[in-house]
Amino acid sequence: MDKPGTVYIMSSPNRTTLYVGVTSDLCGRVWKHRTKFYPDSFTSKYNCVMLVYYQSFQRIADAIGEEKRLKGGNRKQKDELIHNMNPEWIDLWEQMCGG
């Protein structure tokens, strides 16, 4: 049985840098980005600490496929995806994980 998964996008507060990732534990993974748990990681270096988009899947394999598709896309496509779900680009951390 395949476990569920979530593809997500983190943004820097000034919206200049985006990071696309996939996880089976969204709140735990976002917490690691926010706290810079891995100080040498891309998200730490570029201050990608805001959860601005996510999409959940019943199978992690489907989430991985969507992550690859998003990573292969351009910035405009990612911006449109975020805007459609989260037009104000608010940090969704608190509503998803209780802050």
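[next item in queue]
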Amino acid sequence: MAPEVSVLVEGGKAAAGAALGAALGPLGVNVAQVVVQINEHTKQFAGMKVPVLVKVDAATRAFTLEVGRPPTAALLLKEAGKEKGSGKSKGEVIGDVSMDAVRKIAEAKGADLQGRSDEERVNQVLGTAVSMGLTVDGADPRGLLTTRLAARGPR
């Protein structure tokens, strides 16, 4: 089994620092090449943390990258133009996102979310918005969840 190194890097700004260098150095991989490829593959996620899995072939010292998607919370913050979520989600609203943005995030995350249908994935993103202190189209996302669940009816 090939050794794997899992890291969370800021999009387009990976560095051969302590975490990455210490993990990859003993495997004999050119850390600078890994960093260049990670930055190339993650530049579209600038300003967001992105999970990256580096798989190393111990025999050839070749590597492959698997770049994940940023967390739902990071995508919501980007849409809201905020740095961080609320520490008091039930009482403090930090920003607003559109329902179109919620749908776009649910679609982009796809199978990373637990829902089996697009509607269930949208509900998950709405739930994340609740916990972060975000409104959706100016409304409390909890109200949108209740409305969406009631409209769906029993399973």
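[queue empty]
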